[in-house]
Amino acid sequence: MALPYQMRASMKYLIPLSAVMLLLAIMGFTGVPNVIWGPDSPVFTSTRQWTTGEHLLNWRLRNAPLWLYQGLHAAPAITWSLLMPLQHIDRFRQYWPTFHRRNGYVVLSISLLLSMTGYLMIGKRVAHTHENIFHFHNLSGLLPIGWPSFELSLICWGPIYLYSLFRTIQTAKTKDIATHRKWAVTHTISAYAISLERVSLGVIYIAGWALAIFPKNAVHRFLRIEDTISAKASLELDTFALANIMGFSIAIWWAVNEWRRAQQSTTSWGASFIAILVSRAKISSPTLALDLFANMYLAGTVKFGGGPVFIPLLRSCLVDPGWAYSRDFLIGFPGPISHFAVFLGAPALRTTSYPTFLGAFLGGLGIFFPGISLARQTR
Ligand code: HEM
Protein backbone atom coordinates (compact mmCIF):
# COMPACT_ATOMS: atom_id res chain seq x y z
CA MET A 1 0.00 0.00 0.00
CA ALA A 2 1.29 3.43 -0.81
CA LEU A 3 1.43 5.61 2.27
CA PRO A 4 2.17 9.32 2.51
CA TYR A 5 5.48 10.66 3.83
CA GLN A 6 5.93 10.11 7.53
CA MET A 7 7.85 12.52 9.70
CA ARG A 8 11.27 11.24 10.67
CA ALA A 9 14.41 12.31 12.47
CA SER A 10 17.14 11.18 10.11
CA MET A 11 20.16 9.28 11.43
CA LYS A 12 22.28 11.53 9.19
CA TYR A 13 21.68 14.30 11.70
CA LEU A 14 21.02 12.41 14.93
CA ILE A 15 24.32 10.55 15.03
CA PRO A 16 26.62 13.59 14.60
CA LEU A 17 24.48 15.65 16.97
CA SER A 18 24.61 12.89 19.57
CA ALA A 19 28.38 12.68 19.08
CA VAL A 20 28.67 16.41 19.83
CA MET A 21 26.64 16.00 23.02
CA LEU A 22 28.71 12.97 24.05
CA LEU A 23 31.92 14.92 23.60
CA LEU A 24 30.61 17.84 25.63
CA ALA A 25 29.25 15.57 28.35
CA ILE A 26 32.66 13.90 28.62
CA MET A 27 34.26 17.34 28.85
CA GLY A 28 31.81 17.99 31.67
CA PHE A 29 33.92 15.45 33.59
CA THR A 30 37.39 16.14 32.24
CA GLY A 31 37.28 19.89 31.54
CA VAL A 32 38.80 21.39 28.38
CA PRO A 33 42.51 21.82 27.66
CA ASN A 34 43.65 25.33 28.60
CA VAL A 35 46.12 25.27 25.69
CA ILE A 36 43.29 26.05 23.28
CA TRP A 37 40.84 27.86 25.54
CA GLY A 38 43.15 29.65 27.97
CA PRO A 39 42.67 33.22 29.30
CA ASP A 40 44.81 34.69 26.50
CA SER A 41 43.09 33.08 23.54
CA PRO A 42 41.83 35.54 20.90
CA VAL A 43 38.34 36.99 21.28
CA PHE A 44 35.45 34.70 20.21
CA THR A 45 37.61 31.57 20.32
CA SER A 46 36.54 30.74 23.87
CA THR A 47 33.64 31.28 26.25
CA ARG A 48 35.66 32.69 29.08
CA GLN A 49 34.67 33.45 32.61
CA TRP A 50 34.95 37.21 33.15
CA THR A 51 37.13 37.22 36.28
CA THR A 52 39.57 34.34 35.74
CA GLY A 53 39.42 34.05 31.96
CA GLU A 54 39.27 30.25 32.13
CA HIS A 55 36.85 28.43 29.86
CA LEU A 56 33.34 28.27 31.25
CA LEU A 57 33.38 24.45 31.38
CA ASN A 58 36.48 24.49 33.61
CA TRP A 59 35.02 27.26 35.77
CA ARG A 60 31.78 25.31 36.16
CA LEU A 61 33.68 22.17 37.16
CA ARG A 62 35.17 24.09 40.07
CA ASN A 63 31.99 25.91 41.10
CA ALA A 64 28.89 23.89 40.28
CA PRO A 65 27.54 21.24 42.66
CA LEU A 66 28.88 18.11 40.94
CA TRP A 67 25.95 15.92 41.99
CA LEU A 68 23.79 18.24 39.90
CA TYR A 69 26.06 19.10 37.01
CA GLN A 70 27.77 15.74 36.48
CA GLY A 71 25.49 13.31 38.29
CA LEU A 72 22.09 14.56 37.15
CA HIS A 73 22.90 16.34 33.90
CA ALA A 74 26.14 15.35 32.12
CA ALA A 75 25.97 11.61 32.97
CA PRO A 76 22.29 11.21 31.97
CA ALA A 77 23.09 13.24 28.83
CA ILE A 78 25.57 10.51 27.85
CA THR A 79 22.92 7.80 28.20
CA TRP A 80 20.36 9.95 26.39
CA SER A 81 22.70 10.62 23.47
CA LEU A 82 23.33 6.90 23.05
CA LEU A 83 19.73 5.75 23.42
CA MET A 84 17.73 8.44 21.61
CA PRO A 85 18.98 7.60 18.07
CA LEU A 86 17.93 3.95 18.61
CA GLN A 87 14.30 5.11 18.87
CA HIS A 88 14.48 6.35 15.29
CA ILE A 89 15.85 3.19 13.63
CA ASP A 90 12.89 1.70 11.72
CA ARG A 91 14.18 -1.86 11.90
CA PHE A 92 14.58 -1.69 15.67
CA ARG A 93 10.99 -0.58 15.99
CA GLN A 94 9.72 -3.28 13.65
CA TYR A 95 11.66 -6.23 15.03
CA TRP A 96 11.94 -5.31 18.71
CA PRO A 97 8.78 -3.37 19.63
CA THR A 98 9.20 -4.19 23.33
CA PHE A 99 12.71 -2.75 23.29
CA HIS A 100 11.39 0.34 21.48
CA ARG A 101 8.72 0.82 24.15
CA ARG A 102 11.02 0.33 27.16
CA ASN A 103 13.85 2.32 25.66
CA GLY A 104 11.33 5.06 24.80
CA TYR A 105 10.24 5.42 28.40
CA VAL A 106 13.86 5.47 29.59
CA VAL A 107 14.84 8.15 27.06
CA LEU A 108 11.78 10.30 27.76
CA SER A 109 12.35 10.07 31.50
CA ILE A 110 15.92 11.24 30.93
CA SER A 111 14.57 14.08 28.75
CA LEU A 112 12.44 15.19 31.68
CA LEU A 113 15.33 14.84 34.11
CA LEU A 114 17.63 16.88 31.84
CA SER A 115 15.14 19.71 31.61
CA MET A 116 14.55 19.76 35.36
CA THR A 117 18.24 19.74 36.25
CA GLY A 118 19.01 22.16 33.40
CA TYR A 119 16.59 24.73 34.79
CA LEU A 120 17.87 24.03 38.28
CA MET A 121 21.39 24.90 37.10
CA ILE A 122 20.05 28.17 35.74
CA GLY A 123 18.29 28.80 39.06
CA LYS A 124 21.47 28.05 41.00
CA ARG A 125 23.40 30.46 38.75
CA VAL A 126 25.96 27.88 37.67
CA ALA A 127 25.17 28.38 33.97
CA HIS A 128 26.96 30.95 31.84
CA THR A 129 24.35 33.65 31.97
CA HIS A 130 23.83 37.37 32.22
CA GLU A 131 23.05 38.82 35.63
CA ASN A 132 19.80 40.23 34.26
CA ILE A 133 17.95 37.52 32.36
CA PHE A 134 15.89 40.14 30.48
CA HIS A 135 19.04 41.67 29.02
CA PHE A 136 19.29 41.89 25.23
CA HIS A 137 22.73 41.28 23.76
CA ASN A 138 24.01 43.16 20.71
CA LEU A 139 27.81 42.86 20.87
CA SER A 140 28.06 45.97 23.04
CA GLY A 141 26.13 48.16 20.63
CA LEU A 142 28.01 46.94 17.54
CA LEU A 143 24.85 45.52 15.98
CA PRO A 144 21.54 47.37 15.56
CA ILE A 145 19.39 44.42 16.66
CA GLY A 146 19.61 42.44 19.87
CA TRP A 147 18.80 38.94 21.06
CA PRO A 148 17.71 37.62 24.45
CA SER A 149 20.00 36.25 27.12
CA PHE A 150 20.96 32.55 27.14
CA GLU A 151 18.73 32.07 30.17
CA LEU A 152 15.64 33.74 28.70
CA SER A 153 15.82 31.87 25.38
CA LEU A 154 16.17 28.54 27.25
CA ILE A 155 13.16 29.41 29.38
CA CYS A 156 11.14 30.27 26.24
CA TRP A 157 12.21 26.96 24.69
CA GLY A 158 10.88 25.04 27.70
CA PRO A 159 7.19 24.90 26.62
CA ILE A 160 8.08 23.44 23.20
CA TYR A 161 10.39 20.88 24.79
CA LEU A 162 8.02 19.88 27.58
CA TYR A 163 4.80 19.94 25.56
CA SER A 164 6.29 17.72 22.83
CA LEU A 165 7.58 15.41 25.57
CA PHE A 166 4.12 15.21 27.13
CA ARG A 167 2.38 14.56 23.77
CA THR A 168 4.92 11.86 22.87
CA ILE A 169 4.10 9.96 26.08
CA GLN A 170 0.37 10.60 25.84
CA THR A 171 0.07 9.35 22.23
CA ALA A 172 2.22 6.30 23.04
CA LYS A 173 -0.15 5.42 25.88
CA THR A 174 -3.27 5.83 23.71
CA LYS A 175 -1.51 3.90 20.93
CA ASP A 176 -2.23 6.64 18.42
CA ILE A 177 0.84 5.65 16.47
CA ALA A 178 0.66 8.19 13.62
CA THR A 179 0.35 11.14 16.01
CA HIS A 180 2.88 9.59 18.38
CA ARG A 181 5.41 9.52 15.57
CA LYS A 182 4.89 13.23 14.86
CA TRP A 183 5.35 14.25 18.47
CA ALA A 184 8.26 11.89 19.02
CA VAL A 185 10.09 13.45 16.08
CA THR A 186 9.19 16.95 17.28
CA HIS A 187 10.43 16.24 20.79
CA THR A 188 13.63 14.69 19.46
CA ILE A 189 14.32 17.77 17.35
CA SER A 190 13.50 20.09 20.25
CA ALA A 191 15.99 18.23 22.44
CA TYR A 192 18.69 18.13 19.76
CA ALA A 193 18.30 21.91 19.59
CA ILE A 194 20.60 21.86 22.64
CA SER A 195 23.21 20.10 20.54
CA LEU A 196 22.60 22.46 17.60
CA GLU A 197 23.32 25.29 20.01
CA ARG A 198 26.74 23.77 20.80
CA VAL A 199 27.40 23.29 17.06
CA SER A 200 26.53 26.96 16.52
CA LEU A 201 28.98 27.89 19.26
CA GLY A 202 31.60 25.82 17.39
CA VAL A 203 30.88 27.86 14.25
CA ILE A 204 31.37 31.06 16.26
CA TYR A 205 34.72 29.74 17.56
CA ILE A 206 35.78 28.99 13.97
CA ALA A 207 34.81 32.55 12.99
CA GLY A 208 36.87 33.75 15.98
CA TRP A 209 39.94 31.84 14.79
CA ALA A 210 39.42 33.29 11.29
CA LEU A 211 39.31 36.76 12.83
CA ALA A 212 42.53 35.99 14.71
CA ILE A 213 44.39 36.05 11.38
CA PHE A 214 44.16 39.85 11.51
CA PRO A 215 46.36 41.92 13.84
CA LYS A 216 44.99 41.86 17.41
CA ASN A 217 44.92 45.66 17.74
CA ALA A 218 42.91 46.07 14.56
CA VAL A 219 40.39 43.45 15.68
CA HIS A 220 39.99 45.05 19.10
CA ARG A 221 39.64 48.51 17.55
CA PHE A 222 36.96 47.18 15.21
CA LEU A 223 35.11 45.54 18.10
CA ARG A 224 35.65 48.62 20.28
CA ILE A 225 37.10 46.68 23.21
CA GLU A 226 40.20 46.82 25.43
CA ASP A 227 42.58 43.87 25.46
CA THR A 228 41.26 42.66 28.82
CA ILE A 229 39.73 39.39 29.98
CA SER A 230 36.50 41.03 31.10
CA ALA A 231 36.03 42.92 27.82
CA LYS A 232 36.51 39.76 25.77
CA ALA A 233 34.34 37.73 28.17
CA SER A 234 31.54 40.27 27.88
CA LEU A 235 31.42 39.99 24.07
CA GLU A 236 31.67 36.20 24.30
CA LEU A 237 28.68 36.14 26.61
CA ASP A 238 26.77 37.85 23.79
CA THR A 239 27.80 35.18 21.30
CA PHE A 240 27.04 32.42 23.79
CA ALA A 241 23.44 33.68 23.92
CA LEU A 242 23.47 34.08 20.14
CA ALA A 243 24.40 30.39 19.74
CA ASN A 244 21.16 29.50 21.52
CA ILE A 245 19.13 31.56 19.06
CA MET A 246 21.01 29.98 16.13
CA GLY A 247 20.45 26.44 17.45
CA PHE A 248 16.78 27.02 18.18
CA SER A 249 16.19 28.62 14.79
CA ILE A 250 17.73 25.62 13.01
CA ALA A 251 15.61 23.26 15.13
CA ILE A 252 12.42 25.20 14.34
CA TRP A 253 13.26 25.15 10.63
CA TRP A 254 13.98 21.39 10.82
CA ALA A 255 10.72 20.58 12.65
CA VAL A 256 8.55 22.85 10.50
CA ASN A 257 10.08 21.30 7.40
CA GLU A 258 9.23 17.79 8.62
CA TRP A 259 5.65 18.79 9.53
CA ARG A 260 5.18 20.57 6.20
CA ARG A 261 6.56 17.67 4.16
CA ALA A 262 4.25 15.23 5.91
CA GLN A 263 1.30 17.57 5.43
CA GLN A 264 2.06 18.26 1.77
CA SER A 265 2.62 14.63 0.97
CA THR A 266 -0.63 13.56 2.64
CA THR A 267 -2.45 16.28 0.72
CA SER A 268 -0.84 15.54 -2.66
CA TRP A 269 -1.15 11.79 -2.21
CA GLY A 270 -4.84 12.07 -1.27
CA ALA A 271 -5.49 14.71 -3.94
CA SER A 272 -3.95 12.68 -6.78
CA PHE A 273 -5.86 9.58 -5.69
CA ILE A 274 -9.18 11.44 -5.52
CA ALA A 275 -8.52 13.42 -8.73
CA ILE A 276 -7.93 10.30 -10.81
CA LEU A 277 -10.96 8.44 -9.49
CA VAL A 278 -13.27 11.48 -9.65
CA SER A 279 -12.22 12.39 -13.20
CA ARG A 280 -12.97 8.86 -14.32
CA ALA A 281 -16.37 8.96 -12.65
CA LYS A 282 -17.19 12.40 -14.01
CA ILE A 283 -16.17 11.88 -17.63
CA SER A 284 -19.29 10.46 -19.26
CA SER A 285 -17.43 8.05 -21.51
CA PRO A 286 -13.87 7.69 -20.22
CA THR A 287 -11.40 6.26 -22.70
CA LEU A 288 -10.24 2.74 -22.09
CA ALA A 289 -6.75 4.13 -21.55
CA LEU A 290 -7.95 6.33 -18.65
CA ASP A 291 -10.00 3.46 -17.27
CA LEU A 292 -7.00 1.16 -17.36
CA PHE A 293 -4.73 3.71 -15.70
CA ALA A 294 -7.31 4.49 -12.98
CA ASN A 295 -7.80 0.80 -12.19
CA MET A 296 -4.07 0.19 -11.96
CA TYR A 297 -3.50 3.34 -9.87
CA LEU A 298 -6.19 2.19 -7.46
CA ALA A 299 -4.64 -1.28 -7.27
CA GLY A 300 -1.13 0.16 -6.82
CA THR A 301 -2.37 2.39 -4.00
CA VAL A 302 -4.47 0.00 -1.99
CA LYS A 303 -2.44 -3.17 -2.36
CA PHE A 304 -1.09 -4.14 1.00
CA GLY A 305 1.11 -7.12 1.79
CA GLY A 306 2.84 -9.66 -0.47
CA GLY A 307 2.14 -10.77 -4.03
CA PRO A 308 -0.62 -13.37 -3.44
CA VAL A 309 -3.08 -10.77 -2.07
CA PHE A 310 -2.57 -8.91 -5.29
CA ILE A 311 -3.72 -11.73 -7.60
CA PRO A 312 -7.51 -11.45 -7.07
CA LEU A 313 -7.25 -7.64 -7.10
CA LEU A 314 -5.48 -7.59 -10.46
CA ARG A 315 -7.81 -10.22 -11.83
CA SER A 316 -10.85 -8.13 -10.98
CA CYS A 317 -9.18 -5.02 -12.43
CA LEU A 318 -8.13 -6.59 -15.73
CA VAL A 319 -10.00 -9.81 -16.47
CA ASP A 320 -13.43 -8.90 -15.09
CA PRO A 321 -13.90 -5.82 -17.36
CA GLY A 322 -12.92 -8.08 -20.28
CA TRP A 323 -9.62 -6.31 -21.01
CA ALA A 324 -7.54 -9.46 -20.69
CA TYR A 325 -8.34 -13.12 -21.18
CA SER A 326 -8.20 -15.48 -18.28
CA ARG A 327 -5.70 -17.49 -20.33
CA ASP A 328 -3.33 -14.48 -20.65
CA PHE A 329 -3.64 -13.89 -16.93
CA LEU A 330 -2.50 -17.45 -16.25
CA ILE A 331 0.35 -17.20 -18.77
CA GLY A 332 1.70 -14.14 -16.99
CA PHE A 333 1.18 -15.67 -13.58
CA PRO A 334 4.64 -17.13 -12.85
CA GLY A 335 6.24 -13.69 -13.26
CA PRO A 336 6.69 -11.09 -10.57
CA ILE A 337 3.14 -10.18 -9.58
CA SER A 338 3.23 -6.41 -10.13
CA HIS A 339 4.76 -6.88 -13.60
CA PHE A 340 1.47 -8.47 -14.61
CA ALA A 341 0.09 -5.01 -14.93
CA VAL A 342 2.61 -4.22 -17.67
CA PHE A 343 2.14 -7.57 -19.39
CA LEU A 344 -1.67 -7.34 -19.34
CA GLY A 345 -1.90 -3.60 -19.97
CA ALA A 346 -0.89 -4.20 -23.60
CA PRO A 347 -3.76 -6.53 -24.60
CA ALA A 348 -6.17 -4.26 -22.68
CA LEU A 349 -5.86 -1.64 -25.44
CA ARG A 350 -5.92 -4.10 -28.35
CA THR A 351 -9.49 -3.13 -29.34
CA THR A 352 -8.72 0.62 -29.40
CA SER A 353 -6.81 2.80 -31.83
CA TYR A 354 -4.07 3.33 -29.22
CA PRO A 355 -0.82 1.38 -29.65
CA THR A 356 -0.69 -1.58 -27.28
CA PHE A 357 2.63 -0.45 -25.77
CA LEU A 358 0.71 2.54 -24.36
CA GLY A 359 -1.42 0.04 -22.44
CA ALA A 360 1.72 -1.63 -21.09
CA PHE A 361 3.12 1.77 -20.12
CA LEU A 362 -0.09 2.94 -18.39
CA GLY A 363 -0.46 -0.38 -16.57
CA GLY A 364 3.13 -0.13 -15.27
CA LEU A 365 2.81 3.55 -14.38
CA GLY A 366 -0.44 3.02 -12.50
CA ILE A 367 0.88 0.09 -10.49
CA PHE A 368 4.34 1.39 -9.67
CA PHE A 369 3.86 5.15 -9.36
CA PRO A 370 2.25 5.15 -5.87
CA GLY A 371 5.04 2.93 -4.48
CA ILE A 372 7.83 4.85 -6.23
CA SER A 373 6.46 8.18 -5.03
CA LEU A 374 6.35 6.76 -1.49
CA ALA A 375 9.96 5.56 -1.75
CA ARG A 376 11.06 8.96 -3.02
CA GLN A 377 9.23 10.84 -0.28
CA THR A 378 10.45 8.64 2.54
CA ARG A 379 14.08 8.50 1.42
C1 HEM B 1 15.08 21.89 28.43
C2 HEM B 1 16.11 21.09 28.49
C3 HEM B 1 17.48 21.45 28.97
C4 HEM B 1 17.92 22.51 29.68
C5 HEM B 1 17.11 23.67 30.25
C6 HEM B 1 19.35 22.40 29.82
C7 HEM B 1 20.15 23.29 30.48
C8 HEM B 1 21.50 23.21 30.58
C9 HEM B 1 22.34 24.21 31.18
C10 HEM B 1 21.85 25.49 31.80
C11 HEM B 1 23.61 23.80 31.07
C12 HEM B 1 24.82 24.58 31.50
C13 HEM B 1 25.03 25.52 30.36
C14 HEM B 1 26.10 26.52 30.46
O1 HEM B 1 26.19 27.30 31.36
O2 HEM B 1 26.87 26.49 29.52
C15 HEM B 1 23.61 22.51 30.41
C16 HEM B 1 24.72 21.78 30.13
C17 HEM B 1 24.68 20.57 29.45
N1 HEM B 1 23.57 19.96 28.89
FE1 HEM B 1 21.66 20.57 29.14
N2 HEM B 1 19.74 21.25 29.21
C18 HEM B 1 18.64 20.65 28.67
C19 HEM B 1 18.60 19.50 27.92
C20 HEM B 1 19.71 18.77 27.58
C21 HEM B 1 19.68 17.65 26.67
C22 HEM B 1 18.45 17.08 25.98
C23 HEM B 1 20.93 17.22 26.58
C24 HEM B 1 21.31 16.08 25.67
C25 HEM B 1 21.99 15.18 25.69
C26 HEM B 1 21.78 18.06 27.41
C27 HEM B 1 23.14 17.92 27.60
C28 HEM B 1 23.95 18.81 28.28
C29 HEM B 1 25.38 18.65 28.45
C30 HEM B 1 26.20 17.49 27.91
C31 HEM B 1 25.82 19.74 29.19
C32 HEM B 1 27.27 20.01 29.70
C33 HEM B 1 28.18 20.47 28.66
C34 HEM B 1 27.90 21.88 28.19
O3 HEM B 1 27.68 22.77 28.98
O4 HEM B 1 27.90 22.07 26.97
N3 HEM B 1 21.00 19.00 28.01
N4 HEM B 1 22.31 22.20 30.12
Q: Gyration radius, to the nearest Å?
A: 29 Å
Low-confidence segments, given as residue ranges, are none
Largest sheet: 2 strands, antiparallel
User: SSE string, helix = H, strand = E?
Assistant: HHHHHHEEHHHHHHHHH
| Cofactors, ions, other ligands | protoporphyrin IX containing FE
User: Rough shape?
Assistant: elongated
Q: Which strand-content bin applies to the residues?
A: under 5%
SS class: mainly alpha
What does the average pLDDT come to?
88
Report how far the terminal alpha carbons are from each other.
17 Å
The helix tally amounts to: 15
Strand order of the largest sheet: 1-2
Instruction: Give me the count of strands.
Output: 2
The domain count comes to 2
The percent of residues in helical segments reads: over 70%
What can you see in these coordinates?
The structure is a single chain. This protein is mainly α. The protein folds into 2 domains: about 10-265; about 285-379. The chain is built from 15 helices and 2 strands. Strands 1-2 form a two-stranded antiparallel sheet. The two termini are about 15 Å apart. Protoporphyrin IX containing FE binds next to helix 1, helix 4, helix 6, helix 7 and helix 8. It is a multi-pass membrane protein.
Task: Write a brief structural summary.
This protein is mostly helical. The protein has helices spanning about 10-30, 35, 55-65, 65-85, 90-95, 95-125, 150-175, 175-210, 215-225, 230-280, 290-300, 310-320, 325-330, 340-350, 355-379; strands at about 135, 145-150.
